[in-house]
Amino acid sequence: MTFPVSASTLDAATLGRLVGERYGMSQSSACQLLKTGINHTYLLAGTGQQAALRVYSYNWRTRAQIEAELALLLKLHALGLQVSFPLADSEGEYIQELSAPEGTRYAVLFSFAEGDKVRWLTPAACTTIGTLMGRMHQSTVGQMLDRPTYTPELLLTQSYASALTFFAAELPEMQYLRDISRQLAHTFSRAGIAAAPIGTVHLDIWYDNMAITSQGEVTLFDFDFCGNGPAILDVAYFCKQLFHIETDKQQYEEKVRHFLNGYASARNLSVAERQLLPAAGAAVWLFYLGVQVQRFDWSNIFLSVNYLKMYVSKMQAWLTYHEHPGSLQEPQAT
Predict the structure, then answer these.
(1) Which of 22, 131, 143, 311 could be joined to 262 by an S-S link, Cβ 3.0–4.6 Å?
(2) What is the 3-state secondary structure (H, E, C) of the chain?
(3) What is the CATH number of domain 12-111?
(4) Residue closest to 256 by CA, chosen among 245, 267, 266, 272
(5) Residues near 203 by Cβ (< 8 Å), separated by ≥ 6?
(6) What are the extents of the domains in the chain?
(7) Distance CA 316, CA 180 (A)
(8) Residue 204 and residue 210: Cα distance in Å, rounded?
């Protein structure tokens, strides 16, 4: 009996030959699997040539959604923003269709982001990142993509519902998430749309999705979660990731100050938007818990009750530090 396949890992050598043929890269270019996750990433490396090949998981993104992502990247690249952008093949096509065992999967070749992933960012790097983010937001204000729109309903309500498919509602942590998601939704509702103008957001800007050269140049990549939403979502999520990395909160405050100053050099962040920062950071945090539950077999093999405890404790620490209403609420043991 031949079993159907729900997910596969495509052979790197075969992908390397395909890229060599379709993109005119050297046939001696080596292709290696870099990362498996929600999508798979391969590195193509040859003489003077490097590129990253993303193979989207089956049914993860529609072709139209991928086209919208690539159109955004090409626009940002044309404007001079440092992003990893799609490369066209010899026939001018950006998207490849691959016949995988589970069905058709899409693949895109991206320019290589020079530099390294830097966990411990310098204040100067934070300024550069802030400027780059601000320029991205300023250049796409009011633009709507054929991508998800990150409303409180999607970020909070639907993400909590997704978490319920994996975790019991009776868990103290789930009760906390239920209550805090309602409070966060109320915070957004009370602020009104004027406090959170809609535009294009990356939604996953942190050190793991950027490369920094020794000269301090920053290149953003992995726009897989790009969509429509208030700019404060990107600002807050970067700050939240920085918050968890920097145990010395004086260092955290200094780096956030540099980041926000860099951002303000490209786009004004209103007082109303700044007031939403704690809630926005927590909302994106809950959203990614929902993603991990939906794609736990690819995005988080460690998903468990113990992981949930750790994840929720980080949300609590963030909200407590920023004195968000309800942030002092602790899960109650049952």
Answers:
(1) 131
(2) CCCCCCCCCCCHHHHHHHHHHHHCCCCCCEEEEEEECCCEEEEEEECCEEEEEEECCCCCCCHHHHHHHHHHHHHHHHCCCCECCECCCCCCCCEEEEEECCEEEEEEEEECCCCECCCCCCHHHHHHHHHHHHHHHHHCCCCCCCCCECCHHHHHHHHHHHHHCCCCCCCHHHHHHHHHHHHHHHHHHHHCHHHCCEEEECCCCCHHHEEECCCCCEEECCCCCCEEEECHHHHHHHHHHHHHHCCCHHHHHHHHHHHHHHHHCCCCCCHHHHHCHHHHHHHHHHHHHHHHHHCHHHHCCCCCHHHHHHHHHHHHHHHHHCCCCCCCCCCCCC
(3) 3.30.200.20
(4) 245
(5) 150, 225, 226, 227, 229, 233, 234, 237, 284, 287
(6) 12-111, 123-321
(7) 10
(8) 10
Q: What is the C-alpha to C-alpha distance for residues 291 and 304, in angstroms, rounded to an integer?
A: 14
Place of tokens 């468990």: 304
Q: What is the rounded distance in angstroms from the CA atom of residue 86 to the CA atom of residue 101? A: 25
Q: 10 Å Cβ neighbour count for 253? A: 12
pLDDT tens digits in sequence order for the chain, 334 residues long: 888 998 899 999 999 999 999 998 876 679 999 999 899 999 999 777 899 999 999 999 999 999 999 999 999 999 999 999 999 999 999 999 999 999 999 999 999 999 999 999 999 999 999 999 999 999 999 899 999 999 999 999 999 999 999 999 999 999 999 999 999 999 999 987 667 888 999 999 999 999 999 999 999 999 999 999 999 999 999 999 999 999 999 999 999 999 999 999 999 999 999 999 999 999 999 999 999 998 866 666 789 999 999 999 999 999 999 986 544 344 444 3
Type of residue found at 97: E
Token pair for residue 120? 């411990």
The fold of the 123-321 domain, in CATH, is Aminoglycoside 3'-phosphotransferase; Chain: A, domain 2 (3.90.1200)
Residue of 230, 65, 66, 223 lying closest to 151 (CA atoms): 230
